[in-house]
């Protein structure tokens, strides 16, 4: 099959196109890094959602709940380890972030397992009910978060080593954004390698293309799906933890807020496609930052506009999944 | 006579008929039966939300498409009237201009969104409306010159609808003032809109919508252009929602994002339609009444439970008055699983 490079070219095209509009190369670099960081964080959160849709035709409107849970759990752990967070050593800082992120992923993953069992499983194959029930799940989860952590927002400050920016001449790059880019690329690489180079990935890709055939060949696609769902939830938790640190505040509404961006990204990318999700996330992150700098007033509409343009060009998203 | 007013869609259950009559009569005499500002406010809110929920049911229950942008149209209607009353002064011409402008904007937006996203799959529509609605809500709070931002708009109603306007002394101990007139304006308009919606869903057009809900592929094969029908349905729903918004603006003399555009309202409408019963206009009516009541009075009930459990740490929080949505959310999920036809479906089944 011939590779479709056109959507991939959109990213450098967008970057280069923005350069003359912004004018100063220094702010262009800053904005580009910020956009990449934001895009990759959204990608981490969106990848699980798009895969579960591709694999089992389940669209989980409650995905935002995992994001919020991740953010809250990570915030709790980091607040408990506050002395390490404020210590002037990058190793102690990382020793605080590591367990926090791990806890966020584990709790979100376990929650995902329960969510799949209780909320999603009874409504396989019924789109309308899926949307309704998972939205109900989101409502209940959001309220439960308020029950456990209280209704007020939690303020979270970044550890000492990740505050401030690297300076290269007059170019300033925030340290935390560099970390976000690195983590995002690692997750993408890990997902890409798993999907393209392992037997498990082969089964998942085959399941996306034609689930019935995979079942007929004797593989339990249901079990595969639960696995993907749990990993996707854990990734949402990771993304939520990172997003919480990025915003430096955590509220129960964080899930619903970010979920809107996540939906835009997976629509742009094409439902079910991880590569499309990656491209879509970067496009959304970059556009949000460029437009936010050029015309803050219309920044909010920019993502919707981007989505409309992409859908005009390719109504099924950038990389439509062949089956549908 | 009754048959033709209800467009041949009778309640088909004794208890349902009883409940509907109780609601109809109860709302009609509410100002005299429960005098006082709060209860009148609840009654007017029930009227507005009945229309809003019924128009959403046209989409969700009859056509089988999920839209998360319904509050956007509601807000457009409310802000249309609010902005024109603020700008043009408190006259009926301002009300007319605002209503028509809101209506037109709602229909145009619904058409654009529909043509964009209903072509592909309904699941796209759900996500795209969610994105558009959230962008619109932020936009409304950003354009503070026009919309008053987060605080919203406070404006004067036309003279005949103000509390200071009086058209006679008292009747059964209730002062005959502009608020009473305003309430009956909202009541009559809501009743008329519900009857129009009943007429629409029981027309041949409504049958096509239900056919699309049951099997879009087959409907298309018979020769109905599903995209066109779905788009028209979402336009009608949007227009009705805008009218409901205009009624709310005419009732409350203030309009802000929290009461018209927020995602919480969207969740409320969803709960109303699903708990009441999808695919029946009466379900929306019952659901709206229940939910508005729950909003205003379930909190009191929870406060009692909260007090009783004050010693227990987590449990007390679980019954905190502000957590009423938690319990309705659980009820919502159970409803989708076990009573997909909602209260009305349940009542009709028993017969």
Walkthrough of the structure:
The complex is a heterodimer of chains A (324) and B (351). Chain A has 324 residues and is mostly helical. Chain A has a single domain (36-313), classed as ABC transporter involved in vitamin B12 uptake, BtuC (Orthogonal Bundle). Chain A contains 13 helices and four strands. Chain A has helices at 6-22, 25-56, 63-80, 82-86, 90-120, 127-149, 175-197, 199-209, 211-216, 221-247, 254-269, 274-294, 299-313, and strands at 154-155, 165-168, 171-174, 249-250. In chain A, the strands form two sheets. In chain A, strands 1-4 form a two-stranded antiparallel sheet. Chain A has a two-stranded antiparallel sheet with strand order 2-3. In chain A, a hairpin with a 2-residue loop joins strand 2 (165-168) and strand 3 (171-174). The two termini of chain A are 18 Å apart. By secondary structure, chain B is mainly α. Chain B has a single domain, classed as ABC transporter involved in vitamin B12 uptake, BtuC. Chain B is 76% helix and 4% strand. Chain B has 17 helices and four strands. In chain B, the strands form two sheets. Chain B has a two-stranded antiparallel ribbon with strand order 1-4. Chain B has a two-stranded antiparallel ribbon with strand order 2-3. In chain B, strand 2 (166-171) and strand 3 (174-177) form a beta hairpin. The two termini of chain B are 24 Å apart. Classes of the chains: A mainly alpha (324), B mainly alpha (351). Chain A binds chain B through residues 59, 61, 119, 122-123, 127-129, 131-133, 135-137, 139-140, 143-144, 146-148, 150-151, 256-257, 260, 263-264, 266-267, 271, 297, 300-301, 303-304, 307-308, 311, 315-316, 324, and chain B through 60, 64, 66, 116-117, 119-124, 126-128, 130-132, 134-135, 138-139, 142, 263, 267, 270, 274, 314, 317-318, 320, 322-323, 325-326, 329-330, 332-333, 336-337, 340.
């Amino acid at each position: 099959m011939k590779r479709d490079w056109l959507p991939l070219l959109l990213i450098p095209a967008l970057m280069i196109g923005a350069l003359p509009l912004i004018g100063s190369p220094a702010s262009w670099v800053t904005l580009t890094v910020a956009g990449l960081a934001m895009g990759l964080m959204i990608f981490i959160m969106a990848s699980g959602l798009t895969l579960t849709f591709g694999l089992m035709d389940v669209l989980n409107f409650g995905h935002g709940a995992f994001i919020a849970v991740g953010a809250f759990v990570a915030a709790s752990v980091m607040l408990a380890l506050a002395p390490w967070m404020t210590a002037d050593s990058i190793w102690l800082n990382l020793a605080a972030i590591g367990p926090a992120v791990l806890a966020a992923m584990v709790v979100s993953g376990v929650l995902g397992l329960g969510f799949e069992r209780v909320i999603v499983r009874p409504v396989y194959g019924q789109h309308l009910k899926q949307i309704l029930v998972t939205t109900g799940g989101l409502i209940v989860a959001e309220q439960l978060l308020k029950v456990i952590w209280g209704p007020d927002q939690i303020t979270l400050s970044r550890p000492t080593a990740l505050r401030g920016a690297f300076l290269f001449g007059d170019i300033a790059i925030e340290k935390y954004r560099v970390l976000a880019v690195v983590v995002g690329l690692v997750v993408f690489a890990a997902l890409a390698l798993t999907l393209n180079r392992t037997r498990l990935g082969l089964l998942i890709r085959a399941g996306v293309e034609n689930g019935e055939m995979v079942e007929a060949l004797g593989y339990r696609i249901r079990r595969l799906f639960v696995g993907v769902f749990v990993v996707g939830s854990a990734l949402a938790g990771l993304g939520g933890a990172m997003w919480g640190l990025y915003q430096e505040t955590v509220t129960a509404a964080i899930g619903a807020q970010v979920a809107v961006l996540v939906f835009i990204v997976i629509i742009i990318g094409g439902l079910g496609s991880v590569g499309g999700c990656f491209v879509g996330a970067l496009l959304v992150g970059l556009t949000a930052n460029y437009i936010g700098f050029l015309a803050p007033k219309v920044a909010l509409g920019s993502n919707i506009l981007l989505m409309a343009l992409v859908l005009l060009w390719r109504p099924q998203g950038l990389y439509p999944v062949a089956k549908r | 006579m009754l048959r033709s007013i209800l467009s041949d869609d009778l309640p088909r259950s004794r208890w349902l008929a009883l409940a509907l009559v109780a609601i109809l009569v109860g709302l009609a005499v509410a100002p005299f039966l429960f005098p006082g500002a709060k209860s009148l406010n609840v009654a007017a809110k029930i009227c507005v939300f009945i229309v809003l929920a019924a128009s959403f049911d046209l989409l969700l229950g009859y056509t089988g498409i999920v839209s998360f942008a319904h509050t956007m149209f509601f807000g457009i209607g409310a802000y249309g009237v609010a902005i024109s009353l603020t700008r043009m002064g408190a006259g009926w011409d301002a009300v007319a201009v605002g209503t028509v402008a809101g209506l037109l904007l709602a229909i145009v937006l619904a058409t654009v969104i529909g043509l964009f996203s209903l072509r592909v799959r309904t699941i796209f529509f759900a996500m795209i409306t969610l994105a558009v609605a959230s962008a619109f809500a932020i936009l409304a709070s950003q354009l503070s010159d026009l919309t008053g931002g987060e605080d919203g708009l406070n404006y004067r109603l036309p003279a005949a609808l103000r509390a200071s306007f009086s058209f006679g002394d008292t009747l059964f101990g209730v002062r005959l003032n502009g608020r009473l007139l305003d309430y009956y304006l909202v009541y009559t308009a809501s009743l008329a809109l519900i009857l129009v919606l009943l007429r629409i869903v029981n027309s041949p057009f409504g049958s096509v919508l239900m056919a699309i809900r049951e099997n879009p592929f087959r409907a298309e094969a018979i020769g109905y252009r599903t995209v066109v029908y779905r788009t028209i349905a979402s336009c009608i729903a949007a227009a009705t929602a805008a009218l409901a918004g205009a009624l709310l603006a005419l009732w409350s003399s203030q309009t802000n994002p929290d009461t018209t555009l927020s995602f919480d309202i969207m969740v409320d409408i969803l709960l109303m339609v699903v708990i009441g019963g999808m695919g029946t206009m009466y379900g929306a009516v019952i659901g709206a009444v229940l939910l508005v009541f729950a909003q205003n009075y379930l909190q009191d009930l929870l406060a009692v439970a909260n007090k009783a459990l004050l010693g227990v740490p987590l449990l007390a929080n679980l019954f905190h008055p502000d957590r009423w949505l938690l319990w309705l959310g659980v009820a919502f999920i159970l409803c989708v699983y076990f009573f997909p036809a909602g209260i009305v479906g349940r009542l009709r089944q028993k017969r």
